[in-house]
Amino acid sequence: MKFKDAFRTLRFKEKETSGCPQLYTKWGEYLEPNNVLMEYPRPQLRRKDYTILNGFWKYCITKEKEWPSTLEDEILVPFSPESVLSGVSKQLKPDEFLWYERMIPMEKKLAGHRCLLHFGAVDQFCEVFVNKTKVKQHMGGYLPFTADITDELTCGDNILTVKVTDTTDTSYHTRGKQKLDRGGMFYTAQSGIWQTVWMEWVPDRYIEKLRITPMVDQNAIYLEIIMNDQKQEETWGKAADDQSCHEDSCVGAMELKWKVRTIDTDGQKEGEKGADGEALKDCGPVCKDRKIIYTDAPDWYPEMDSEESHGEESHDEESLDGESHGGEFHDGKLLDGEPMDSSDGKGCYGVTVCAEHKTILSVSNKLPVMKIAIPDIHYWSPEDPFLYDLVITVGNDRVESYFAMRKIEVKKDPQGIRRIYLNNELYFQNGLLDQGYWPDGLYTAPCDEALIFDIQTAKRLGFRMIRKHLKIEPLRWYYHCDRLGMLVWQDMVNGGGEYNKCLVGYLPTFLPKLTTCCKDKHYRMLGRRDEEGRKEWLTECKEMVEHLYNCPSIVTWVPFNEGWGQFDSKHVYQMIRGVDKTRLIDHASGWFDQKAGDFKSIHNYFHKLKIKSGKRPVVLSEYGGYACYVSEHSYCWQMYGYRIYLSSEDFNKDFQRLMTAELEELKKKGLAAAVYTQLSDIEDEVNGLLTYDRKVCKVKPIGKGES
Hints:
The structure is a single chain. The chain is of the alpha/beta class. The protein folds into three domains: 31-203, Galactose-binding domain-like (Jelly Rolls, Sandwich), CATH 2.60.120.260; 207-260 and 295-406, no CATH class; 409-625 and 642-677, Glycosidases (TIM Barrel), CATH 3.20.20.80. It is built from twelve helices and 38 strands. The strands form eleven sheets. It has an eight-stranded parallel β-sheet, with helices on one face. Helix 7 (448-460) runs parallel beside helix 8 (475-484) and helix 10 runs parallel beside helix 11 (569-579). The longest helix is centred in the last third of the chain and has 21 residues, at 648-668. The protein is globular and about 70 Å long. The relative contact order is 0.12. Mean pLDDT is 85; it is low at 238-345.
């Protein structure tokens, strides 16, 4: 063990950083205030007509909760007031109120339509007013929310006001790496609106959510369409999970009215005869050299794995043999007989699937639950990130989306070692930790191009997975991972009271084996004595999984990190499994393993890297942390990291050795995945492969030698 490195890291104290130069990314330097993050923020539920409300708003910070008399200063939304790009650079304190205001001009209302106001995220508590009437109240700084503001709008100018408070780390609410007393591995706290604000007009009855489940082994997707007049708790995932409706009760629900035929796509056009001898009808263009299969038969109803197959008891030797722990659908039963009358007088649900801009099938159904066969499926992977386009129409509403055919699971390799498989093939996930901080925007990237740059750089350096650490990104970040080909391990944001530094820092560092004895039902020990806080975290965790469910790049959920606010992780594992049976779960990343997750998850910065295969796959979910200071591109004059390097040559030499010789040896012994710390520097923490401003890459791609 490297005691010198460990003591220096654990005893790190923030020093005075006044006078340090403000760092900017190249995108922040040339930011156009009137053209900030104008892309549609929700790529998997897109509509054509929308209005982005980013830009300059009026603001003020007060000590009183009463409505301020005037708001005269300007802030650039969606950058937090603590960021330099906001134009404010002022910390919101827990006892203060942040007020936003802007005008919404309205020429006329659209008859038969509703006006929806969307917020990507507001940290941490907010109230939304239109013309001084409250239309929404929201708690939680990392998840989106929507307000229907139709009834409060008038012709002419309307006043939109947002009131924000943020306790940061002074309470048990989710906070991530934010800390009012920043330093070391904790960073500048941010608050307020930090993701895009936009509005759109939708029909009175509109598509509110989609739930898309790829069933690779069945060459199909399972699609649920959630309308605004449905009760989500009664519909979300119900058809896929409710075993009681497997037989006759589901016949009507699953009946599809397909105009179907089997054709060979060899340049045939409408009116020509297909392989079945029938004349082809207009179904749009088709993919060349692909066989398209349509069927009139009633659809299938998929049975899900029971929850019992994913619990702690499933990790014994016998029960894991031949079992997929990513959660797969079993073969369904073809439902025969006459369909029930499912007409509800609200019209049909139309679905069109496209591949490479070619229509491959179109279906319509009277109920919003269907299994759709995908012919000649094209797998998604980091090497081949193939996406299918999806168009859904219900009445007057039309949305565009996408999906991918991807399967993640755990099973034994030919040597009997449990590993991770992607699309039925052994796949080692070599990843990077990424915390999503920016020197000029804090939580908010200056532009879409900045998000793309980080992902592309990770791929260029040789990584195929990113662990998104203690932060939920805007949906466009996941979209770029989907289309560029980057696997994602998604952390839930931590919360709870103040953490015991000895228990979650010193003890695991020096005596890691002792952490296996710690049970997370002792709430006070891990900062979770507040029952209200535990309930709040569970709600937000479930909402996160539902919010990101459709993102094909996400393959693993990580609810807890290093015991920070950890509690009842066995129960949390089962809760997440109940919402999502298609992904893996790292229930306790680092330490305090409760033997409930799909991995044995290890953090190791100071000991010699070694693993021992067992009943679960072994993943090195944090390691490395090599720190190298780059003059004029670092946040301040101090360095925080797990091993300090004074020269870039030595840094790159040891990095290359770690990525090749050491990691390759561990893979032979059964290592299933590895997550290097980290993609970019953040403030004092200079252990990134990129500098904080993203202007210098400290290393060459893996295997390319010294820089």
